[in-house]
Structure formats: C-alpha cells, structure tokens
Amino acid sequence: MNMTSHTASDIPDERDMPITLRLAHRIHAFGAEHITPRALAVARTAFIDTIGVTLAGSAEPCVRILLDTPGVAEAPGKCSVFGTARKTSALDAALVNGTASHALDYDDFSQPMGGHQSVPLISPLLALAEERRLGGEAVIAAYVIGIETEIRLARAVNYHHYDKGWHPTSTLGVFGAAAAASHLLKLDVDKTATALAIAASLAAGLKANFGTMVKPLHVGHCCRNGLLAVLLAERGFSANLTALEHKQGFFNAFNGPGTYDATRIFEDWCAPLEIESPTMGLKQFPCCGSTHPAIAMALALVREDGVKADDIEAIHIQPHARRLPHTNNPDPQTSLNAKFSVQYAVARALLDGVVRLEHFEGDAHRDPRIRRLLAITRTDPHPGMPEDSPLQFGAEVTVTMRDGRVLSRRVDDLIGRGGDHPMSGEELWEKFSDCSKRAIGSSEALALYERLESLEAVTDVSQLARLMTRRTLPGGAEAERDLKVVAAPRNTLVETSWVP
C-alpha cells in the first residue's frame, strides 16, 4: 500500500502549502479501507494493552489527587472516568483517563517517537466515541492515522528534540491526538489543519519531571489539549497554519534551526504504515522502557546461569547511552523514582526473577536485600553501542559472583516485546487481567478483553465503556467484584511478528 500515490490526486500543488495543511490532506484521505490485517491486529492489541494499564492506573495517587482537585471531572457529560462510577465531559475524561493511562509507565512505547505512542490517542478517542455514540471501526482508523502523524513528526525532530529535554509523548502526542480526533469527527481539510495548528501552541512536557506525578500528567494534558484543539477547530476557531515551520513556530522554538528535517514527515507516507513498524514494543515490565533491555539481560542470567542474588559480589550495567540519562538513579527514594532506576529494576530482576507491579508499590524499593544490591552496582554507558546507531535499545549486564565467576548477557536492540520477540496471547491476557482486575474485577476484565478482541465490530463504544467503570450499589457503595477467572480467553491479536 502506498498512501502517497493513493492520495496524490486529492492534494493540490504542495510547494507553497503549510505543513499543517499538507498533513490535513493526508489525514482526511485516510480510510478504514487502507488498514492492513497486520495494522488491524496491532491496533486491537494496543487498545487491549492501553485500556488494561489505564484501569490499573486509575487508582494511583496522581489520579486520585487529580480527581480530588476542585473543578476536575465536575463538568456534566456522558463520558466515563475509567475505574470509577463517575461521568464527565469528553475533555475532562480525556485528562483523567490520559493521566491514568501513563500513571504506572506500563504502556507501549516507540523508538522513533522517543516516547509512548498509544496513550496520547486512546483516551481522547474513547471519550469522543462514547459521547457521540461512535463505533470501533472508526476509532481504529482514527488511531492508525494518529500513530502515523505523531511518529512522522517524531522522525522530523528526533533525536535532538528528545535529547534537548522535551517529553515527546506529550509534545508530539498532542498532534497525534488532534489528527486522530479530527479523523474520528470527519472534519474537513481546513478544520483539520487548524486543529493541528492550535495543537502546536498546546504542546508541553519536560523530561525534568520524569519520576514524578507530573510525567503522567503530561499525557493527561496532551490528551485533553489535542481534543480541545479539535473541538475548537470544529466550531470555527482560527490559527496560523504555518505554526509548525514559522520562524517562531514549533520546529524552531522547540528544536531550533538546523535541528529538524520536515521533509521526513512526508517521505513514503503510510508506505508502510508506521503502526506496522518493528520499532514499537509492548511493556512486559511496569517501569521505564529504557530499563527493559537491562532487565531482560538480568533475567537471562537468572534463568540461564542460575544466578542467585545472595551470591553476587558486584553488578555492572551498561545500557545504550541514550537509555541512561533518565534512568541513572542509583538510590531511588520513592516508588516512582524506582520506575526510572535501571539499577533498581536490574536488582529486582536478579533478586526475584520477575519484575511486577507490586515491586513499584509502597516501600518495595526499601527492601534491605535490594539495598545491598544497589550498593554494589556500577552503571555507565556501553562503549560498544554508538549514540548514532539505529539500534538504540541495547544493554549489557555483568555480574561478578562470590566464587570468582564473571557472567554477562548482552542485547543490542530490544524494544519491549515486539519484533522477533513477541508477547504471546497468554502473556498479553495475563498482563491485561493483572492490570484491569484491580479496578473492575476479574469477571468483568474477561468480558472486556473478549469485546476488545473484536473492537472493530463494536457499533457503539459507549456500551464498551460500561465495562470499564466500577459499579455502585444502592446507597453509593462500590460493588466488590473479584470472581476467579479459570481460563484465559482466545487471543488472535499477537500472531504477527510485531507486538507493540
């Protein structure tokens, strides 16, 4: 499939056309008929994974504080706040659910984006679809073109954008959210371009706040702002369509002259679709994706060499240099800090042979056995993994044992569970169940999962949203739902070689 040639006849001479308008023509021309079977399978999987981690995140302190803040989620509306019994406006639902979706840092991620591709899109799309009683097929098509838009912009500005300190999940995801919501509402080309131009002024998110509650708040505001841009454009709001390339526009203000290449946005547009790329991965571990290659190598040492934590004398972690600035946290003092500590994540893998949600809760990071391992850990960038390499997710973990043995495992590129290392259907269900039952109960988690397996056949997303809310009993008490699920559902979503 080559969308560039497919849409060429629909697009006028682009030589003097603003970038937002060029993007808008492509977004408008994209339809469900352009979604390949592989893209459909990946999209379904992304919705399953993102909804699962959103439900798990709905009880996190950052979400509870947000909900307790006067004015948040108090607007009347038809949209669900997932994991609760509350209804609110589409904008507030996008804000709260978007924050919840990233609260555990357990959502899928992308190398070219330098961040998380699904969370900017799914909360605003579900809120909009629930409010306007739209179906799953339209939501999936909007999601796919949202992925295309945000990652194409990422290819234009990274890695300078990422290294400078911006959080691309939010600064670029806001454009994906605007593109996706514009497509879902079937805005015309001019209004879609306006929405993208508005989004340029609503982009924000600093990596300085990684490891705090602000990081998931970046996503909540990205979701809300992208949707707000579209709702304003729908009603005739104006914006400068050159807001990306203007001398004081997004590219020059966020990156700087000479540090971006806007032509990369349109090269081989949708050929293939970005969603089919092997450079995206599901998170098997509930912590920063940059720690995952090192975790996987630590687990390999436990599994293949029988390494026991009590017998370790020294640990040496050498990630790719780009994975280290935000994860080099040798002494995490909070559970959120621990999510951004490659030292803690590797120590936990070596100690327990698994890395689970419970390891980033409460005082798990203060475990004396973990503290001993942190004290004997050294971390530095891997000298054999160049910063300009196309392989950006590598790591080597070396342990020196008390008996004198030196054991090591290395991987040059491991972007979560994807590519030639896909997550099985059983593993996907296990993650979804573990996440979602915390908010809605095990039996409802199973029913929700089965509906999401055929998301494109759902005719009204508001019916699906009911499965994501906590029921209340007469008098206002919340229902307890912890029925045991004895068998995993059928899953056909992860049969391709790519799983995000």
Automatic annotation (TrEMBL):
InterPro entries: MmgE/PrpD_sf (IPR036148), MmgE/PrpD_sf_1 (IPR042183), MmgE/PrpD_sf_2 (IPR042188), MmgE_PrpD (IPR005656), MmgE_PrpD_C (IPR045337), MmgE_PrpD_N (IPR045336)
Keyword flag Hydrolase: no
Domain MmgE/PrpD N-terminal span(s) in chain numbering: 22-258
GO molecular function: 2-methylcitrate dehydratase activity
Keyword Lyase among record annotations: yes
EC code(s) of this entry: 4.2.1.79
Residue ranges of every copy of the MmgE/PrpD C-terminal domain listed in the record: 285-446
Coiled-coil region: none
SUPFAM superfamilies with a match to the protein in the record: 2-methylcitrate dehydratase PrpD
Signal peptide start and end residues: none
Keywords (A to Z) from UniProt: Lyase
Homology family: Belongs to the PrpD family.
Record-given protein name: Putative 2-methylcitrate dehydratase
Native species: Paraburkholderia dioscoreae
